[in-house]
Design goal:
6 helices; globular; about 40% helix; six-stranded parallel sheet; alpha/beta
């Protein structure tokens, strides 16, 4: 199996860090809207700012991953649908999720959205990675607690 190119992925929590990442040569950035993301300490982006950022990033061939990595309550589903429609329309490169309900809604109603499993999903083994991949998860961010040897073993046993 050929070795994949390492992706330089930068977190961007505000406009300044977004442009710093673009100018420093990031291959991709991850960022959140002001709602539904676990990056509460970041300023995050309004929808107009986010839409402009996606356009600027894509002009430089930089991918934009959006964090939608929190648990969604029933009363928030209408708002979730609105956000997913927005993300689909602006053509983000992926949505990083935690909640299997979000997965189901995005996968069913917004099939163009690429979905990545957040570290908050708690995947600690290749079985979880392979299960997610079998459902349509394109990338899994493994649990932070894993050691490098554990990560290597999971990587070897993961089918995707």
């Amino acid at each position: 199996m050929p070795k994949q190119k390492t992706e330089l992925l930068a977190p961007v929590g505000n406009v300044e860090s977004f442009y710093a990442a673009l100018n420093a040569g990031a291959d991709a950035v991850f960022m959140g809207l002001q709602e539904f993301n676990a990056r509460g300490r970041a300023s995050n982006f309004t929808r107009p700012m986010f839409q402009l950022a996606v356009m600027k990033a894509h002009e430089k061939r930089v991918k934009v991953y959006v964090t939608l990595n929190v648990l969604i309550k029933n009363k928030e589903i209408d708002q979730l649908l609105d956000i997913l429609a927005f993300l689909d329309a602006v053509k983000v490169d992926c949505v990083i999720i935690q909640d299997w309900g979000v997965f189901f809604i995005a996968h069913k109603y917004f099939p163009r959205l690429v979905l990545h499993a957040s570290t908050q999903m708690g995947n600690h083994n290749s079985v979880g990675v392979n299960f997610g991949a079998s459902k349509g998860i394109v990338r899994t961010v493994l649990a932070r607690e894993l050691t490098m040897p554990e990560l290597e073993k999971i990587s070897q046993r993961a089918k995707a």
